[in-house]
């Protein structure tokens, strides 16, 4: 372990916690009606026809056919992204790949998977799914409709993932039961909520998952979107009336498929105890991969990322 010894932050991104303490973190108390809230949203999302439109992309790659993708999500929100199809072999597996809060400007061509159709959606308001009424700045995006539990933007982002699954199944119906999800940071937190209720997803990888233990996330000094929520809370009062229904750790307790979760001991953007709250809540079939740090460059990061990438390839391999 080589947790960064020096850093530019005015707080300690380990929050004074060692690995054993982090592994003991439990999810927060959950609000009444959590399941009913999400199950109703999922059932409604299943009624949406994504109407995907594919076109040739400006991106090219020797291993992948690259297509630009547009589909419709809930509330007719237009979602942009990419579809990658393998140049060799058949399409025997599907994978939806989420992104961090910085959005995404291109697909990831380096995922170590074969015979897999990959969808890289940009969640609503971000990158290819930008909208004039929604800020792309994470500190503002995370606040969009935060005062309205039923229309808070993070719920729409979860629905965007469900509609990505619907898109894959519409294009390749034989992938039923063979679709996974992989997401980092923002995409990790949204992914936990998506996987918890989408019975079509058969396994997932969450790295540095955000939105875990929202009461704790409001208290621990952070940078980025968490700080944006803390600043809003300081000015406007109780955001937990909304946020408790968008808690990735509470959702993770419902996950019943194999998972690979990567969590960090040091992270200024997503506090480690909040990450571990998600990883620890997953009831079974969960391998936890420990990174020295997240959202921060550190010695040995390349080696750790390579080892994690190998695990991701094994986890999503076609069987």
UniProtKB/TrEMBL annotation:
Domain of life: Bacteria
Pfam families: AXE1
Keyword annotations of the record: Hydrolase
GO MF, any single term: carboxylic ester hydrolase activity
An individual GO BP term: polysaccharide metabolic process
InterPro entries: AB_hydrolase_fold (IPR029058), AXE1_dom (IPR008391), CE7 (IPR039069)
SUPFAM superfamilies listed in its UniProt record: alpha/beta-Hydrolases
Residue ranges constituting the Acetyl xylan esterase domain according to the UniProt record: 17-301
Annotated positions binding substrate: 101
Record PANTHER family: CEPHALOSPORIN-C DEACETYLASE
Protein name as it appears in the record: Alpha/beta hydrolase
